[in-house]
Each structure stands twice: as structure tokens, then as C-alpha cells.
Design goal:
168 residues, alpha+beta, Rieske Iron-sulfur Protein, 3-stranded antiparallel β-sheet, 1 helix, elongated, binds FE2/S2 (inorganic) cluster, oxidoreductase activity, acting on paired donors, with incorporation or reduction of molecular oxygen, membrane, Menaquinol:cytochrome c reductase iron-sulfur subunit, Rieske_Fe-S_prot, electron transport
């Protein structure tokens, strides 16, 4: 007969350790799951956000288009409203510019400076941009306005995430 028999004390130790571990795992799993849940969640869907702007209504005059979407920040969900200046250029192509000034982030307005008509104007420090979003030398902004990629779906304009303009 083998001398490797398990004593009553060892048996109880093994059993209690096993049961304790099983119970601890049962308690910890929901906590771990809760902690990493936003990371595991698949957001899915498109990165383009619907706007109320009908593509057929876009003219060559920049029009401010506001659009709202739900932003998920870890466990916090909030409604965010962004804007774009949307128009058609001389070739009839749609341009959607970010209104965020590239100097210190104020909001630019179209045609708001009487001394510089047909420009985007930033009231914070007098920043100026031409209609295509190019910053005017001699004013504070040091880069062109960001550009939204866009799509057309069911006749409406959808906008992606604004990005710095790519130089040709
Ligand atoms: S923030 Fe626009 S010019 Fe300074």
C-alpha cells in the first residue's frame, strides 16, 4: 500500500482552498467584467455622423451646419453638438470646414468682419481665413481650418472626424 495517502487535515485544506478560490472567482469576475466593459464593447457602425443638411440645398455660400451625436467616454455617455461650415467650391465640390480656429480654438464665423468680407473671421484675436479655409498671413492662425471628410446618404450630408487639410 502507498504511503502517499492524504491526511484528513490535508483533505480539508485542499477542499477549503478549492471552494474559497471558486467563490472568490465568482465574486471577482463581475468586478473585472465591469472594469473592462467599455474596452470590450464593440461600438460598430459608421464613423460618419448624420447632419440635417440636405446635399441638394448646399450652395456656394458657407452655411453653418450643427449636428449632434452621442459620445461614449468610458462609462459616461453624453450628447455633443459640433458644427461645420459647408459650401460648394468653384468646381461644385462640397467643402466642410471645422469652425475651430487654429490659433487658440475659438469659433470662426463667416463674413463677420466688415473690413474683410467673404472671409472666415475669428473674433478672439482677429484671425482671418480665406473661403477655402487657408489662414491669412499676418493674422494669428498658423494653419488652415481642419476639413471634415463627408459622405452623402439618402440625400443628406454625413460628416466624419475633422482632420488637418492635406496639402496638394
Ligand atoms: S483663437 Fe482665433 S485668432 Fe486667436
Amino acid at each position: 500500500m502507498s504511503k502517499n495517502h492524504v491526511s484528513r487535515r490535508q483533505f480539508l485544506n485542499y477542499t477549503l482552498t478549492g471552494v474559497g478560490g471558486f467563490m472568490a472567482a465568482g465574486m471577482l469576475m463581475p468586478m473585472v467584467r465591469f472594469a473592462v466593459d467599455p474596452v470590450l464593447k464593440h461600438t460598430g457602425g459608421s464613423d460618419f455622423i448624420a447632419t440635417p443638411q440636405k446635399v441638394s440645398d448646399i450652395t456656394n455660400v458657407p452655411t453653418r451646419v450643427d449636428f449632434t451625436f452621442t459620445q461614449q467616454d468610458a462609462w459616461y455617455e453624453s450628447e455633443v453638438t459640433n458644427s461645420a461650415w459647408v459650401f460648394k467650391d468653384d468646381k461644385g465640390e462640397i467643402i466642410a470646414l471645422s469652425p475651430v480656429c487654429k490659433h487658440l480654438g475659438c469659433t470662426v464665423d463667416w463674413n463677420a468682419d466688415k473690413a474683410n468680407p467673404d472671409h472666415f473671421y475669428c473674433p478672439c484675436h482677429g484671425g482671418l481665413y480665406s473661403k477655402d479655409g487657408t489662414n491669412i498671413p499676418g493674422t494669428p492662425p498658423i494653419a488652415p481650418l481642419d476639413v471634415y471628410p463627408f459622405q452623402e446618404k439618402d440625400g443628406y450630408l454625413y460628416l466624419g472626424k475633422a482632420e488637418p487639410r492635406k496639402e496638394a
